[in-house]
């Protein structure tokens, strides 16, 4: 198995579009990555079937934002709104693709948003998502779609938030000597910008882990020409890892869910960290 995705093997990048700030950040990140790798950009808009079902309920009402009055949810009106949002998402994709001179396609699906994205995205090498949902309760953690991608997805997923960049600045890779962490490192090297600094955080508890990791990763790291800094952090607690990562001047966090990390540790880390996260499968 190849240790990660080599440049040239990432041919398609899918991005979930819903016209939210997180979606716009995801689109820019996906475009920046696609132009660097010569990949095609696939925009996916999902018409949420739950909204349409809700509109058909006899007690469903909308709250008008400016007048704070209520009124009956109109299913036909909601259909028009979804078509408008899909058109807006397609126009955003078109403008961004033209700005970056990218090949691109656009898909409109209908169904449960997380499930539709998970079924559509395996055609792509990377799926880019906003990490938070639209509701206020989701703004500090993972939204339902991001949670589903983390829990059930089989493709590599990039979780973005507004105000962050994906791979222009420093990158941080978690490494424990497992095949999963080797894939994470290979993928990070494939997407890194030419001037990127790469932090390799070794979380193996053995005293000689840092030196052993240098030797294990030499054949991957040396040809890249990137500056690499090694850190030894012998802990396996998600919140401790998040605190340490915040102390390092890094941008994108790259890791694999095939590492020797408990699932609860991985989820705690991804929930707590502020930076964008690339989860390599």
Question: Could you walk me through the main structural features you see in this protein, from its secondary elements to its overall organization?
Answer:
It is a single chain. This protein is α/β, with parallel strands linked by helices and 281 residues long. The chain folds into 2 domains: 12-60 and 72-160, Rossmann fold, CATH 3.40.50.620; 171-280, Rossmann fold. The chain is 40% helix and 23% strand. It has 9 helices and 12 strands. The strands form 2 sheets. It has a 10-stranded mixed sheet with strand order 5-2-1-6-7-12-11-8-9-10, sandwiched between helices. A hairpin with a 6-residue loop joins strand 3 and strand 4. Helix 1 (21-37) packs parallel to helix 3 (75-100), helix 4 packs across helix 5 (144-152) and helix 8 runs parallel beside helix 9 (263-272). The radius of gyration is 20 Å and the shape is globular.
Keywords:
two-stranded antiparallel ribbon, 40% helix, ten-stranded mixed beta sheet, 281 residues, alpha/beta, Rossmann fold
């Amino acid at each position: 198995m190849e240790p990660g995705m080599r440049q040239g093997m990432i041919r398609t990048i899918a991005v979930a579009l819903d016209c939210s700030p997180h979606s716009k950040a995801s689109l820019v990140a996906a475009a920046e990555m696609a132009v660097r790798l010569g990949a095609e950009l696939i925009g996916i808009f999902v018409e949420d079937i739950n909204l349409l079902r809700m509109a058909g309920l006899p007690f469903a009402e909308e709250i008008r934002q400016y007048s704070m009055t209520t009124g009956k949810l109109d299913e036909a009106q909601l259909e028009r709104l979804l078509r408008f949002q899909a058109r807006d998402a397609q126009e955003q994709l078109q403008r961004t693709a033209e700005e970056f001179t990218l090949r691109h396609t656009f898909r409109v699906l209908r169904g449960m948003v997380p499930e539709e994205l998970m079924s559509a995205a395996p055609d792509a090498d990377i799926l880019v998502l906003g990490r938070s949902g639209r509701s206020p309760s989701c703004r500090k953690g993972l939204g339902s779609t991001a949670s589903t991608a983390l829990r059930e997805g089989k493709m590599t997923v990039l979780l973005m938030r507004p105000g962050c960049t994906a791979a222009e600045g420093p990158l941080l890779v978690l490494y424990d000597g497992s095949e999963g962490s080797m894939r994470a490192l290979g993928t990070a090297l494939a997407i890194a910008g030419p001037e990127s600094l790469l932090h390799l955080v070794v979380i193996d508890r053995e005293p000689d882990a840092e030196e052993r990791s240098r030797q294990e990763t030499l054949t991957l790291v040396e040809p890249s020409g990137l500056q690499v800094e090694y850190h030894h952090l012998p802990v396996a607690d998600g919140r401790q890892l998040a605190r340490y990562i915040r102390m390092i001047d890094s941008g994108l966090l790259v890791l694999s869910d095939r590492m020797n990390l408990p699932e609860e540790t991985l989820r705690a880390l991804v929930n707590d960290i502020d930076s964008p996260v690339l989860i390599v499968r």
